[in-house]
Specification:
The chain is an all-beta fold. Helices cover 0% and strands 34% of the residues. The protein has a domain at 1-46: N-terminal domain of TfIIb (Single Sheet). It comes from Xenorhabdus thuongxuanensis.
């Protein structure tokens, strides 16, 4: 998700994020304008459900195979802020 810097309006890159709950995520952003460099957080949450699927009963040992997702989705290159 792209955000603009609240200070200068330039593109702000999402650097990392963390789950706060099952439906809420805090993201850390950094402005790409070298003269600004503002860093800020945003909170993304589920506002409401439009539909709710009927959950399927899966075996207890079921895991989604890692190869089902592209390498860019593994999160290997995220920066940890150590909070």
């Amino acid at each position: 998700m792209a955000f603009t810097c609240p200070q200068c309006g330039a593109v702000a890159k999402t650097r990392t994020s963390e789950m706060m709950s099952d439906e809420t995520r805090r993201s850390y952003h950094q402005c790409q304008n070298i003269l600004c460099g503002c860093t800020f957080t945003t909170v993304t949450t589920v506002e409401r459900y439009l539909t709710r699927p009927i959950p399927q009963q899966l075996p207890a040992d079921f895991k989604v195979p890692k190869l089902a997702f592209p390498a860019s989705h593994y999160g290997d290159e995220q920066i940890g802020f150590g909070f």
